[in-house]
Amino acid sequence: xxxxxxxxxxxxxxxxxxxxxxxxxxxxxxxxxxxxxxxxxxxxxxxxxxxxxxxxxxxxxxxxxxxxxxxxxxxxxxxxxxxxxxxxxxxxxxxxxxxxxxxxxxxxxxxxxxxxxxxxxxxxxxxxxxxxxxxxxxxxxxxxxxxxxxxxxxxxxxxxxxxxxxxxxxxxxxxxxxxxxxxxxxxxxxxxxxxxxxxxxxxxxxxxxxxxxxxxxxxxxxxxxxxxxxxxxxxxxxxxxxxxxxxxxxxxxxxxxxxxxxxxxxxxxxxxxxxxxxxxxxxxxxxxxxxxxxxxxxxxxxxxxxxxxxxxxxxxxxxxxxxxxxxxxxxxxxxxxxxxxxxxxxxxxxxxxxxxxxxxxxxxxxxxx
Length: 369
Hints:
Blueprint: H1 32-44, E1 52-58, H2 64-75, E2 79-85, H3 109-116, E3 120-123, H4 135-140, E4 144-148, H5 153-158, H6 163-177, E5 181-185, E6 191-195, E7 200-204, E8 214-217, E9 221-225, E10 231-237, E11 242-243, E12 248-249, E13 254-259, E14 262-267, H7 271-282, E15 291-297, H8 318-322, E16 327-331, E17 345-349, E18 353-356, E19 359-363, E20 366-367
Parallel strand pairs: 1-2, 1-3, 3-4, 4-8
Antiparallel strand pairs: 5-6, 5-18, 6-10, 7-9, 9-15, 10-13, 11-12, 13-14, 15-16, 16-17, 18-19, 19-20
């Protein structure tokens, strides 16, 4: 169910213990509830006593996240070591944000070998290893990887993985893998036709137990990377939709014309369209205009309005990718289509209808189960 309407808030679990409401917990010191949450998530990753845990961080990582990961893994009896690599700074060109492709490892072979030989890699890099070039070798070694999204711990605690989300995401991954065509429409004017033949579909629910797999926390997303030449139509970003690369709610409509995967026109009279045109042009790279992935959010606990309550540095935006019923359109790198670029937009949209081979799975922004 979409979370953009008022609803009864659950009673704060800390009130009975007199600790105060969790909305005030915005200082990055260790809180018992945060450590308990990390321990629970690592436990869901089937971490056992004696397993080897590699905590991967970089110099610009949020310090509290690798610390919480280390303490939680030690609570579970694991053998823990931390690798903190220098962040890559001073790169020429536009700022890179929301890429999902950490460049901290820099193809250093001993680092890759150490990660691949571990039972579990807790990825606390800023951007994460999801699209990093070293990931295939790490997974091939048998490690499983959980990326802790670069969020304030308060958000992670709110978005704990659960059995219901796991079941829902697995079901929708199966649907995507069996689908030939996705269509997306909206009252604002979106009308997309997406071939999923040859696509790679997947998703995550916030934890993983299988060697050679990756997940991220928070979870609750099903998506597909289409093959080349699969996406055509019109995408209209309406007020209240989100540009996560800018960490900004859209305030004026943007119309994207998409032809054979590529955005060929960005139209709109407001600042939002100007910013999008300026940033995507700055890469000087045609692949920055192409589709990366398409999908939809399935997490009932995630909230569309949450970004308004955080400073930008405290918010990475995974929650807005996952809130139930959003349609997520992304531009940039797509390994399935053989395209690579650092230019990237993640664009969660509300009030869309998503159909898979004619069957409605999201109806005007509400998940149909």
